[in-house]
Design brief:
9 helices
Length: 178
């Protein structure tokens, strides 16, 4: 069972140990993730529907993540900016409230696989426009939860595959080290 105190990014001291530099940077990454805001041109809608949190390790959130991500791809392809921003907001909110149970790590891995599939999102060749926002969002979350995700065999398989995912992951992890 996962110790929630170890998962809390505000916790910098573990069981009598001194705070580590990595934990301080993890707090900064988590703060950056918490403060990401995607605005649409119609701000009057506010928050049309709140995201639901997972409450146990039996709740598979893969369809939730992939549903939002698939809608993001549609909106990006057809230039529907407000829908794209809404889907990014929903993914960010869902990730922020998502309890990363051991059994649910693969849900995040499936989101990563989707985001880094070049048929779904733009690869680095399109960086002149800032790169892909879905990739940027999920890699930021991955940087926050790296210690937990690396215990997942599916995540480690994704790392072994290499590619742009690993390059982006390394850049994000380097931010943690300063």
């Amino acid at each position: 069972m996962e110790d929630n105190a170890d998962r809390d990014p505000g916790t910098v001291v573990k069981r009598g140990k001194k705070p580590t530099k990595v934990r301080e940077f993890q707090i900064r990454l988590r703060s950056e993730l918490d403060n990401v805001v995607y605005k649409s041109s119609d701000e009057s809608t506010g928050n049309p529907c709140a995201v639901r949190e997972n409450t146990c390790d039996e709740q598979d959130f893969t369809p939730v993540f992939l549903g939002h991500a698939d809608l993001y791809v549609f909106a990006d392809k057809w230039g529907v900016t407000d829908l794209k921003m809404l889907t990014l907001t929903k993914i960010r909110s869902t990730l922020n409230t998502f309890t990363l149970y051991e059994a649910r790590r693969r849900d995040v891995v499936e989101l990563l696989r989707f985001a880094y599939d070049n048929e779904n999102t733009r690869d680095r060749g399109d960086e002149d426009d800032g790169g892909d926002e879905l990739r940027a969002l999920v890699i930021l979350y991955t940087g926050c939860e790296y210690e937990n995700l690396m215990k997942c065999s599916e995540f480690m398989d994704l790392v072994v595959e290499g590619g742009e995912f690993v390059q982006d992951l390394l850049k994000t992890l380097l931010k943690r080290l300063g």
